[in-house]
């Protein structure tokens, strides 16, 4: 590491984490530092301008004149290339949370703060704050000579403060683990990630994983880091090897959302069932798999029926969307709508669904009622509530309150007589 | 424009000034004409620090939003990217830079400003894409605590709660500590620090450590804040789940307030011209800024919504009377006086018109049957009724497929008011939710359990009634028009967090030791040394100033409650509020829901 640069300030601003260059490994980090130095120019401390108080003016559309979002609209629209819809940039101006488009999902929001090595207190002193807050000037300690034998604790503290540290000195496994524990104790995500990057590079994978099994905080950081850098293979290996924490199974399960193809998704879910979830969750995942399986079968059948044009019901009420990936209750509604009369044996009959997924009576009756009412099949509605007792008399019974029944009937414009009944 | 920042006990303009100074310095570093490419998320918070006019002073001629593809044409010397250190944004920047026409002259220089911190990961990413060298200046702009109003600061860190409580990532706490150090640099060392919660403990430790690392660097500023109170959000999980009932709280619940701006449906705001029919209604939502610079708003924002109507009608009478004055003005002098006051009166009238429209919009919702049913169930839970059984209203709502977040708020509220649900009840709710809304919500339910919002009852004992009784959280005799207690903000429920702050000031936390032990996390007190010359001698009758920092989010209702305490005559303390994010129940639960949309490839 050369300190040929006379610019002392500039040196202390540069990236704090880099490996020892003498080892001549192709370390991107040291190269990064070099290129950064080459590119950075001297900072000037500029005098403050006088501030002026701007009056708040509002344009006719309600956008405060002079606000940033207004200015984006104004200046951008005057450029030759058109942004799609002045509206979008205008609206998106300040409603950042609602309107921000969800981008590539493999990066998490936590990357905002994680995996970064901040320049910490050094940044504060660069501003004019320095002029009237002398305590924010860099402490004398930072100007001390660079020495190469800091203990793990000191190394971590130095890294936290944004100073350059070579981690290569920690050669033995013991040292490395102590370093990691110190980093975790310091609660600084950046330092932990930096140490993990070093360990990932210098430790055998099995050893690293074994040690991380008992250090859950560091494990979480490594997982996030791998997610962000897209090292899927390493990530999946890690997940497979460390099954003690519930969240790992779930992050595996979460992956199913990235699989668009239904068949592949079904396969994936089947694989998830084997993972050690808690008892209730296992049954839910199992249900999910079974449901998707059923949906695939129903979908292929129904699509066939629809195109064949033979079935009356499909002709009268053509399907608006596929049943794949829909929730269970929606699926039940669909089957009550299109397949009400089928026997229990078929996959698409409502009674089969009820039995397989143990849908409670209340839910079943409500859904069936809604479906049949929509089709105006009042006889079926009647039959739902009529039970014959052993004397042969019919009785009206419903697991849900009758006021709800009437409500649903009214919504579907049932003839008054049916409601009376 | 700084009126709303200097109106409080502590003048927060200085904080904004520091922010502006840093921004100016950076802009001046990139000499020549500039165009700024914005990360959309930042335009809101930045708008609170600096408006376009300030940027224009520093030769910023064009502003664009960050999007893939080619950068728009602009005849400027410098192009600066203002971005958060996120990898997907780096991809877009790379795309922009690579598509830049190298042949065109004059060539444009690129710079990048990371907010609030640089990221080694991002810079490495750019390097791998081969564009790192194209940037001449790569800096960071530390935007920690942003002043929202004279007594309100926020970091606007959306993911702080999720990171701290679900992912064990305390980097946002580090930023909170940094923000507090900046505050202390501007307003003096805070002599007393109280806190409750794990994260509070971490922040306090970090503050003390940071202070120690600058030995002998005491500043000579007279301390403005007497006390700092750090509170974890998970000490009080109940309050954000309940529906807020103050005027500002309801606006946030229904329409969402972002960076002091709200977007409203435009129909009621169409300017009514004389003699013309109401044709050509505007289709764009009406955007309004809400802060204490607007007199009327400052008066009604913290009132219970039921008390707002009478204030508005009184104001209407006053303003009409004022306008009528012109008929009584006889002398030229009087007319002149009237004319000079005209702008103020017109502003007051348009302000009144706006808020009357907003109040009407809100009233439509609060008088609906659904709102009433929802509120009834909430209040039953908060007063401890039937929290251990499956609730019929919730079941009905699930069956009718009401929005999932509404269901989750109610179910979590029941769980918190019962110190966790019985396993059978919990399973029943979970099953119904998964069957109705889809199995993928297992992930959300798991997050909620981890956060402590929806979990099984572990100890078999319900602590909530004890906490409720000792801290007097439920007050039956609440007066919404002329409140005498903070419980008016939820029409009966006093926010637990604010109660803790109230009791800390008087008589102190020793009196509630037992209850404090029932709440999660340690409680502690720290003192920071002040140089002898700065020991404050309080004048008789002068109030103490306490800074309350909510780690994980704060609601407008809680802010209203703290303001109520500030203006109580014999209260003795004035409050300034800081937080990681301004939240309401809906945005809070949403931040805990996993991103369930698959990648749009």
Summarize the helices and strands and which ones pair or pack.
The complex is a heterodimer of chains A (421) and B (601).
Chain A: H1 8-13, H2 28-39, E1 57-58, E2 64-65, H3 68-77, H4 86-92, H5 96-99, H6 121-126, H7 129-132, H8 152-160, H9 173-186, H10 189-202, H11 205-213, H12 216-229, H13 232-241, H14 246-254, H15 262-273, H16 279-308, H17 312-316, H18 328-338, H19 350-357, H20 361-374, H21 378-385, E3 386-388, E4 394-396, H22 402-411, H23 416-420
Antiparallel strand pairs in A: 1-2, 3-4
Helix pairs in contact in A: 3-4, 8-9, 9-10, 10-12, 15-16, 18-20, 20-21
Chain B: H1 3-6, H2 13-29, E1 34-38, H3 40-49, H4 52-57, E2 60-65, E3 78-83, H5 87-98, E4 109-114, H6 120-129, E5 135-140, E6 146-149, E7 152-154, H7 160-165, H8 171-187, E8 192-196, H9 198-212, E9 227-232, H10 238-241, H11 247-254, E10 257-258, E11 261-264, E12 286-289, H12 295-300, H13 305-328, H14 332-366, H15 369-382, H16 392-399, H17 404-417, H18 423-437, H19 442-451, H20 464-470, H21 496-505, H22 513-518, E13 523-527, E14 544-551, H23 556-566, E15 573-579, H24 585-592
Parallel strand pairs in B: 1-2, 1-3, 3-4, 4-5, 7-15, 8-9, 9-14, 14-15
Antiparallel strand pairs in B: 6-7, 8-13, 10-11, 11-12
Helix pairs in contact in B: 5-6, 8-9, 13-14, 15-17, 17-24, 21-23
């Amino acid at each position: 590491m050369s300190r040929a640069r006379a610019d002392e300030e500039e040196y202390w601003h540069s990236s704090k984490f880099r490996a020892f260059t003498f080892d001549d490994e192709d370390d991107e980090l040291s190269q990064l530092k070099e290129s950064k130095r080459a590119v950075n120019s001297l900072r000037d401390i500029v005098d403050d301008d006088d501030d002026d108080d701007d009056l708040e003016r509002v344009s006719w559309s309600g956008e405060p004149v002079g606000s940033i979002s207004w200015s984006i609209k104004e200046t951008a629209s005057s450029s030759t290339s058109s942004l799609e819809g002045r509206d979008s940039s205008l609206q998106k101006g300040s409603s950042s949370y609602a309107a921000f488009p969800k981008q590539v999902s493999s990066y998490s929001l936590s990357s905002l703060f994680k995996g970064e090595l901040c320049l910490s207190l050094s940044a504060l002193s660069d501003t004019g704050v320095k002029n009237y807050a002398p305590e924010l000037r860099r402490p004398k300690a930072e100007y001390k000579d660079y020495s190469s034998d800091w203990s793990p604790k000191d190394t971590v503290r130095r890294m936290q403060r944004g100073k350059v540290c070579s981690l290569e000195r920690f050669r033995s496994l013991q040292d490395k683990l102590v370093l990691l524990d110190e980093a975790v104790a310091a609660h600084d995500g950046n330092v932990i990630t930096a140490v993990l990057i070093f360990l990932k590079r210098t430790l055998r994978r099995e050893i690293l994983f074994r040690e991380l099994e008992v250090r859950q905080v560091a494990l979480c950081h490594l997982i996030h880091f791998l997610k962000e850098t897209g090292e899927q293979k390493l990530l999946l290996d890690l997940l497979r090897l460390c099954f003690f924490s519930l969240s790992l199974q779930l992050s595996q399960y979460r992956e199913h959302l990235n699989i668009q193809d239904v068949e592949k998704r079904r396969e994936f879910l089947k694989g998830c069932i084997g993972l050690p979830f808690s008892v209730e969750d296992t049954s839910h995942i199992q249900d999910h798999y079974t449901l998707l399986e059923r949906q695939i079968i129903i979908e292929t059948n129904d699509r066939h029926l629809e195109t064949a044009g033979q079935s009356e019901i499909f002709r009268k009420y053509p399907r608006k969307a596929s049943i794949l990936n829909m929730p269970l209750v929606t699926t039940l509604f669909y089957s009550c709508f299109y397949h009400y009369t089928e026997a229990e044996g078929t996959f698409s009959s409502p009674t089969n669904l009820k039995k397989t997924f143990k849908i409670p009576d209340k839910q079943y009756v409500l859904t069936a009622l809604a479906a049949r009412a929509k089709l105006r099949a009042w006889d079926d509605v009647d039959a739902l509530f009529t039970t014959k007792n052993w004397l042969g008399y019919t009785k009206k019974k419903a697991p849900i309150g009758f006021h709800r029944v009437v409500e649903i009937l009214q919504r579907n414009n049932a003839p008054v007589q049916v409601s009376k009944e | 424009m700084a009126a709303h920042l200097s109106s409080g006990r502590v003048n927060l303009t200085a904080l904004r000034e520091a922010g502006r100074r840093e921004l100016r310095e950076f802009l001046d570093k990139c000499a020549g004409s500039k165009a700024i490419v914005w990360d959309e998320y930042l335009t809101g918070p930045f708008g609170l620090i600096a408006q376009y006019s300030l940027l224009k002073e520093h030769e910023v001629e064009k502003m664009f939003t960050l999007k893939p593809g080619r950068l728009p044409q602009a005849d400027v010397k410098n192009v600066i990217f203002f971005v958060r250190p996120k990898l997907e944004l780096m991809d877009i920047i790379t795309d922009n830079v690579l598509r830049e026409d190298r042949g065109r002259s004059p060539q444009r220089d690129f710079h990048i400003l990371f907010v609030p911190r640089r990221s080694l990961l991002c810079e490495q990413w750019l390097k791998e894409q081969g564009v790192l060298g194209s940037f001449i200046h790569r800096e960071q702009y530390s935007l920690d605590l942003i002043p929202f109003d004279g007594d309100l600061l926020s970091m606007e860190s959306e993911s702080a709660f999720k990171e701290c409580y679900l992912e064990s990532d305390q980097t946002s706490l580090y930023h909170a500590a940094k923000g507090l150090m900046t505050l202390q640099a501007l307003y003096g060392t805070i002599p007393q620090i109280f806190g409750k919660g794990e994260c509070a403990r971490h922040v306090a430790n970090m503050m003390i450590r940071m202070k120690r690392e600058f030995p002998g660097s005491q500043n000579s500023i007279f301390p403005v804040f007497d006390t700092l109170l750090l509170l974890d959000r998970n000490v009080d999980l109940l309050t954000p789940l309940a529906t807020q009932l103050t005027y500002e709280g309801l606006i946030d619940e229904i329409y969402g307030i972002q960076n002091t701006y709200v977007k409203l449906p435009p129909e009621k705001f169409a300017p009514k011209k004389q003699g013309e029919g109401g044709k050509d209604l505007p289709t764009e939502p009406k955007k309004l800024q809400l802060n204490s610079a607007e007199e009327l708003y400052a008066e009604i924002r913290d009132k219970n919504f039921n008390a707002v109507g009478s204030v508005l009608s009184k104001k209407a009478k006053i303003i009409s009377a004022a306008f009528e004055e012109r008929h009584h003005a006889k002398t030229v002098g009087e007319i002149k006086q009237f004319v000079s006051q005209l702008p103020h009166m017109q502003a007051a009238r348009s302000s009144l018109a706006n808020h009357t429209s907003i109040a009407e919009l809100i009233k439509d919702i609060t008088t609906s049957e659904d709102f009433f049913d929802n509120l009834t169930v909430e209040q039953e839970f908060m007063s401890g009724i039937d929290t251990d059984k499956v609730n019929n209203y919730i079941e009905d709502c699930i069956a009718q497929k009401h929005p999932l977040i509404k269901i989750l708020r109610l179910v979590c509220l029941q769980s918190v008011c019962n110190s966790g649900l019985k396993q059978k009840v919990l399973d029943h709710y979970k099953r119904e939710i998964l069957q109705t809304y889809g199995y993928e919500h297992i992930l959300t339910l798991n997050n909620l359990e981890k956060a402590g919002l929806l979990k099984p009852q572990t100890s078999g004992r319900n602590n909530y009634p004890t906490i409720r009784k000792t801290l007097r959280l439920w007050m039956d005799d609440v007066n919404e028009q002329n409140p005498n207690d903070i419980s008016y903000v939820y029409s009966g429920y006093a926010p637990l967090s604010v109660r803790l702050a109230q009791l800390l000031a008087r008589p102190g936390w020793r009196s509630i030791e037992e209850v404090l032990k029932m709440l999660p996390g340690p409680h502690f007190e720290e003192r920071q040394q002040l140089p002898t010359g700065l020991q404050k001698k309080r004048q008789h009758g002068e109030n103490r100033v306490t800074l309350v920092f909510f780690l994980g989010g704060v609601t407008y209702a809680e802010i209203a409650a703290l303001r109520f305490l500030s203006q109580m005559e014999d209260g003795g303390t004035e409050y300034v509020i800081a937080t990681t994010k301004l939240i309401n129940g809906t945005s809070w639960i949403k931040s805990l829901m996993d991103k369930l949309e698959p990648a749009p490839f």
